[in-house]
Amino acid sequence: MRALVYHGPGQKSWDDVPDPRIVDSTDAIIGVDATTICGTDLHILKGDLPDTTAGRILGHEAVGTVEAVGVAVTTIKPGDRVVVSCVSACGRCRYCREARYGQCLGGGGWILGYQIDGTQAEFVRVPFADTSTYLIPAGLSDEAVLMLSDILPTAYEVGVVNGGIRPGDTVAIVGAGPIGLSAIMGARLYSPSHIIAIDLADTRLEAAKQFGADVTVNPSRQDPAKVIAGLTDGLGVDVAIEAVGIADTFEMCTRLIRPGGHVANVGVHGKPATLHLEDLWTRNVTITTGLVDTWSTPTLLKLLRTGQLAPEKFITHRFGLDQVIDAYDVFSRAAGTGALKVLLHK
């Protein structure tokens, strides 16, 4: 088969590689009908995640058709259409029993495209298939369901739920890329009074408006703190969601939050950020971090099925799977290309 292979920092290629095979009785082989590129893939390519070794097939998001299953797999069968979760779950360990699948001790967690071969390929081996794939209801498009592999549950769980958004809250989302826009979509489910999107790219701020942001701020022209002070009687926001993964944006969130508020960090950080406890310790600020667990995927599938979510609008560019190198180029220059999510289809 053909696959996108990582060869070390800054190096990747579309290569011929061996077909995946059933290794464990809980495995499934999925034919990839659609996949996409994540900001985390760019972090790997930059060398931010040194655990990813040369030769690894990248990607952790897919919609596909079951080709084969191990003898222990009972919930899916060949021919079924499934969404592949970005997090694999053994289903038996302490953390899986608590629905904290991202911390799986039994060989799961975030492993696809990171510690084992991933989804940017014609076929992928999915471990723990019963607890790491979800049957797709009839009538839902690949483009919509693909967003439930990663970005929607990530933003919902690590941003919206961890941030404790409540009706009437004022919410700042720093970073209007795919995760930030997903956080806007998820936050709207809780009826906040204002959602403020903050980003340096005007194209992404325009997208934020389409996804439900009430106010947009470009820090190169406006001071986010002044804008927020005017909306909150000087208090600051109730919830600040960091959706970039750099020190400046995390520290901005800690400056924008009100006393008693919540900072929910979703971004993938490759370098340290300063935690200004000298300013925060008296203000009762809660800071949360987290890797997505994907416990919300069944709920999000229900919301998608009933029309309360419309994630297909994330797709801005479409490529054949064999055009993955071009897709990476477009996605990596998102500020200039306007790319949100690129669809790679067979």
Distance between the termini: 12 Å
Helix/strand-derived category reads alpha/beta
Based on the structure given, which CATH architecture of the largest domain is correct? Alpha-Beta Complex
Strand content: 15-25%
CATH fold topology of the largest domain: Quinone Oxidoreductase, Chain A, domain 1
Helix content: 25-40%
Outline:
globular
Give the total of beta strands. Answer: 15
What string gives the helices and strands in order? EEEHEEHEHEHHEHEHEHEHEHEHEHHE
Mean pLDDT: 96
Q: What multimeric state do the chains show? A: single chain
CATH homolog superfamily of the largest domain: Medium-chain alcohol dehydrogenases, catalytic domain
Please report the first level of CATH classification, the CATH class of the largest domain. Answer: Alpha Beta
Uncertain segments of ≥5 residues (pLDDT<50)?
A: none
Largest sheet: 7 strands, mixed
Query: How many structural domains in the coordinates?
Result: 2
Tell me what you see in this structure.
The protein is of the alpha/beta class. The chain has 2 domains: 2-150 and 293-345, Quinone Oxidoreductase, Chain A, domain 1, CATH 3.90.180; 153-288, 3-Layer(aba) Sandwich (Rossmann fold). Helices cover 28% and strands 23% of the residues. It is built from 13 helices and 15 strands. It has helices at residues 39-46, 94-97, 129-132, 142-146, 151-161, 178-188, 202-211, 224-231, 247-256, 277-280, 297-305, 324-332, 334-337, and strands spanning 2-6, 12-16, 28-36, 62-69, 81-84, 123-126, 133-135, 170-174, 194-198, 215-217, 237-242, 257-265, 286-288, 315-320, 341-345. Strands 3, 4, 5, 6, 7, 14 and 15 form a 7-stranded mixed β-sheet that branches. Helix 5 (151-161) packs across helix 6 (178-188).
